[in-house]
UniProtKB/TrEMBL annotation:
Hydrolyzes ribosome-free peptidyl-tRNAs (with 1 or more amino acids incorporated), which drop off the ribosome during protein synthesis, or as a result of ribosome stalling. Catalyzes the release of premature peptidyl moieties from peptidyl-tRNA molecules trapped in stalled 50S ribosomal subunits, and thus maintains levels of free tRNAs and 50S ribosomes. It comes from Duganella sacchari. It catalyses: an N-acyl-L-alpha-aminoacyl-tRNA + H2O = an N-acyl-L-amino acid + a tRNA + H(+). GO terms for molecular function: peptidyl-tRNA hydrolase activity; tRNA binding. HAMAP family: Pept_tRNA_hydro_bact. This is Peptidyl-tRNA hydrolase.
Length: 193
């Protein structure tokens, strides 16, 4: 099964642009640039939207313009319109449980407390969609005295930003395999540090 929709999660607006919670947007922005696609506001989905050609496949790119905890509205609307099933969806999001510099691919599983994933699961009626998890670290693991909500809504330290960007670059290299449905090969390549 190939991927037909790649969703980047984040919060809209310039005040959130550089925050850790927007790692999904960062990847999709890079993917759009690399593939020559132009994300444009699409009111029908309340999102930034583009069609891209990746590995010879037509793929939709989506960045919901709702806040993170309402991401499912955009994803659900687009999936219904284009008749995209959950296993054809890849959601790219920040992951507290992974250190900066790490990216992991998985299908299904719980939201792990991520409100964007919770809302997408509710909208799709299943947890069985693909996730590309971009590690941002956890304030405790990084020895920071911040609450999680505060942590994800702030810019990463410069050294963490560089690691997150490296994980995004590595993820972009395996996206053609992911889009073609070559999940075991993509997973092996991505998870090999």
């Amino acid at each position: 099964m190939a991927i037909r929709l790649i969703v980047g999660l984040g919060n809209p607006g310039p005040e959130y642009e550089q925050t850790r919670h927007n790692a999904g947007f960062w990847l999709v922005d890079n993917l759009a640039n690399d593939s020559g696609a132009r994300l444009q506001r699409e009111t029908k989905y309340n999102a930034m939207f583009a069609k891209a050609s990746i590995a010879g496949q037509e793929v939709y790119l989506l960045e919901p313009l709702t806040f993170m905890n309402r991401s499912g509205q955009s994803v659900g609307a687009l999936c219904r319109f284009f008749k995209i099933s959950a296993d054809e969806v890849l959601v790219v999001h920040d992951e507290l449980d992974l250190m900066p510099g790490t990216a992991r691919l998985k299908k299904g599983g719980s939201s792990g407390g991520h409100n964007g994933l919770k809302d997408i699961t509710a909208a799709l009626g299943t947890q069985d969609y693909w996730r590309l998890r971009i590690g941002i670290g956890h304030p405790r693991t990084l020895n920071l005295a911040q609450q999680v909500a505060d942590f994800v809504l702030h810019r990463p330290r410069r050294e963490d930003q560089e690691l997150i960007e490296r994980a995004i670059e590595k993820s972009l290299l395996v996206l053609p395999q992911i889009v073609k449905g070559e999940f075991p090969a993509a997973t092996t390549k991505l998870h090999t540090d």
